[in-house]
Amino acid sequence: MEAAPIPTRRELAMHEMWCGADMSGEPVWHVLTPDKTSTLCGVEKQEEAARRHTTDRHCFSCMKSFQLVVESH
Ligand SMILES: [Zn+2]
What we know:
Blueprint: H1 9-14, E1 17-21, E2 27-31, H2 60-71
Antiparallel strand pairs: 1-2
Bound molecules: zinc ion (ZN).
């Protein structure tokens, strides 16, 4: 996992990535909130781990929110 342009290891410890569907149903990498129940862009995390998506796309909303979080520290 080195494709993501942003998160440092320390930030990743707090914010895990989760591969789920975006608004159009395409798989994207979201950033999870610290409690890991939803994503930074407001998508509820679903447990469909059996279906492994592979993508190199990242959720734009999550990335934006994530950067704000990082910068605020
Ligand atoms: Zn997202």
